[in-house]
Amino acid sequence: MIVQKQKVDFEKSSVEESLFIPLLVKVKESERGDAVFTDTKAQEIINSISLDINRFDGGNITYHGILVRTAILDSIVNDFIAKNPEGIILNLGAGLDTRIYRMDCSKIYWFDIDLPRVIELRRRFFSESERVRFISKSLLDESWANDINIDISRPILIIAEGLLMYFTESELKMILNILTEKFSNAQMCFDVIHKFFVGKGISSKFKWGIEKASEIEQLSPKVKLVKAWSAGDYHKNRQELFFRAMNVFQSTRNRSQVLLVKLG
Ligand SMILES: C[S@@+](CC[C@H](N)C(=O)[O-])C[C@H]1O[C@@H](n2cnc3c(N)ncnc32)[C@H](O)[C@@H]1O
């Protein structure tokens, strides 16, 4: 039987199509004998769509950064779920993120927020339920936060994976303002790129980056850094020799970082 592959028609170089970059890393990683994680949902999605995958291959640095951030964020999210099985997770810029399939989210309240055309695509592969909801709005439209229509006194974890680098500093201040006003006391985890990469990018161009993790606190007085992980320090056996050697420099180690902050 010939299965017709589904077409996806995002504009070339649009921020929406950047979602294929992490999705493809999850697929490639799943095919390795020494995989750090496997992701059958990502494989199922990629197998059912028609896509020029070469356009979304960011090379070794991108692959390694996504590998590290996926593993660290998985562990942060798992830890949150273990402590707060009925808590709330807000997945900002969800794209076709498959994390909900990689862990036990059976009691968690999970909200995926992304631009309308992405949520339309997400609906082809993921379903909403009483506990899993999609919000089809830009994060710059502050009304999205009012669509979290459950008791927000529960513990909240906000995830922003592969997202913040696509905003300008003033847009980020606005988003953090919405988050700190509405979800004070929440924890938030996300990855950041080094400012060296601003202006670069595989599809849409990056607009924001930092050098040191502590710079995140300059965006809002209500954001407190809890912990930072530098990509260069993890899965060293999967880094090219040149980068392993260059990791003696903080800026190289910090080419991509994962941060955990507290909103207050
Ligand atoms: C690189 S993808 C990451 C997707 C997903 N978090 C993951 O790691 O697989 C960036 C995502 O951010 C979304 N995004 C960009 N700007 C946005 C905005 N203003 N509001 C909501 N989502 C946005 C894009 O549509 C895209 O799905």
What does this protein structure show overall?
31% of the residues lie in helices and 18% in strands. A seven-stranded mixed beta sheet has the order 5-4-3-6-7-9-8. Strands 1-2 form a two-stranded parallel ribbon. By secondary structure, it is of the alpha/beta class. Helix 1 (20-30) packs across helix 2. The structure holds S-adenosylmethionine. S-adenosylmethionine binds at residues 15-16, 18-19, 21-23, 93-95, 97, 113-115, 118, 138-140, 161-163, 166.
List keywords for this structure.
264 residues; alpha/beta; Rossmann fold; 7-stranded mixed sheet; two-stranded parallel ribbon; 31% helix; globular; binds S-adenosylmethionine
Which fold name is given in CATH as the topology? Rossmann fold
What is the helix content?
25-40%
Task: Give the structural class.
Answer: alpha/beta
CATH architecture: 3-Layer(aba) Sandwich
Rg value: 18 Å
Strand order, largest beta sheet:
5-4-3-6-7-9-8
Quick check: average pLDDT?
96
Per CATH, the class reads Alpha Beta
What is the H/E order?
Answer: EHHEHEHEHEEHEEHHE
The helix count comes to 8
Q: Globular, elongated, flat, extended or rod-shaped: what is the shape?
A: globular
Low-pLDDT segments, ≥5 res? none
Main beta sheet: strand number and arrangement?
7 strands, mixed
Ligands bound, unique:
S-adenosylmethionine
Record field, number of beta strands: 9
**Gap between N and C termini, in Å?**
56 Å
Structural domain count: 1
Strand residue content? 15-25%
